[in-house]
Amino acid sequence: MGDIPPDVVERIKRGRMERRRLKEAYTELFAEVTTLIFRHDPMGLRAAGCPEDEYEPEVGTILPRLHEACGPDDVETIIRQEFGRWFGSPGGPTGDNPLSYPPLAQAVWELWVHWSGRRP
């Protein structure tokens, strides 16, 4: 990977391996959450013409945290934190569409409840 520091290259490789593992272990859930995020498009990637899998890195860090959630508000916090980590600031990304988060979080929560067998 050229002039990229070795520790960064290693972190990228680990992230790809973890994402691959999650996609294999939770194929349907991973695909459905990816589709939901792409549909709600909080960062405008779909609007910019990016492919649907563009949000997969974020899904790869959101999914492992869903077990922490007790409801849609927690899911929204997780999504905001992960998008903030990937796109900008710790409390949430800059340049995002804040109106997309509540309905996205509700949809992800409903999917998670259905998939995990949790009671709301």
Biggest beta sheet summary: none
Mean pLDDT: 84
Helix/strand/pairing class, anyone?
mainly alpha
Q: What is the succession of H and E elements? A: HHHHH
DSSP E strands, number: 0
Number of helices: 5
Helical amount: 55-70%
Strand content: under 5%
State the low-pLDDT regions, or none: none
From the N-terminal CA to the C-terminal CA, the straight-line distance is 45 Å
Indicate the overall shape.
globular
Task: Note down, in words, how this protein is organized.
- With 120 residues, this protein is mostly helical.
- It has one domain.
- The chain is 61% helix and 0% strand.
- The longest helix is centred in the N-terminal third of the chain and has 20 residues, at 6-25.
- The N and C termini lie far apart (45 Å).
Summarize the structure.
Helices cover about 60% and strands about 0% of the residues. It has helices spanning about 5-25, 25-40, 55-60, 70-85, 100-115. The mean pLDDT is about 85.
Write the layout of secondary structure elements.
Blueprint: H1 6-25, H2 27-40, H3 56-62, H4 72-87, H5 101-116
Helix pairs in contact: 1-2, 1-3, 2-5, 4-5
Key features of this structure:
mainly alpha; 5 helices; 120 residues
